[in-house]
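W.,

You were right to be curious about this one. When I first looked at the sequence I had no strong expectations either way, so I just let the prediction run and decided to look at it fresh. Below is the sequence, 182 residues in total, followed by the output.
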Amino acid sequence: MDEVKKRAGKVIVISGLPGSGKSTIAEGVAGKLMLPIFSVDPIESSIIKSGIKRSFESGLAAYLVAETLADEQLSLGLSVIIDAVNPVRESRDMWQNLSNKHNSKLIIIECVLDPDLHKKRIESRIRNLHGISEVSWSDVENRRNEYLAWEDERLVLDTSNTREINMGKALEYIEATEKDLS
């Protein structure tokens, strides 16, 4: 148990508007670092599949489930990846508070994309999440209106770059934060 208390995991938050490439980056980082991903959309889809109607509450429940699962992993000294839009202060505070609770490093990676390319990606994207319709460009624009600018230190990834370039930048940023902890 003492060894677990000495280790502190990291909370790696991959944020950005719907369709900005968050899940691609989260999955790549998870594969390279062998970390669990807690992705809010599939969690909400599972909540809906259980018979609960999609609403603000089902979305909030998905964030709370992700928080609870991450909390359990962090209590073991493990690191986690959170894949979520995180448009508002409350969701961002959730990850900061979890990081503080476990004396963990909060690492934020924000995915951004040129609007024309973003729109093309949205129009061709098919996720097939139960109970969650495909995101339209007007949905993204509405989300953009509520999406607060990040004030926290973070890596901003332009996801119009290749996956390889972005993965390299993301992993380098995460590694650099590990060196800051030593």
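Here's what jumped out at me. The beta strands are 10-16, 37-39, 80-83, 105-112, 155-158. And, maybe more interesting for your project: The chain has a mean pLDDT of 91.

Coffee later to discuss?

I.
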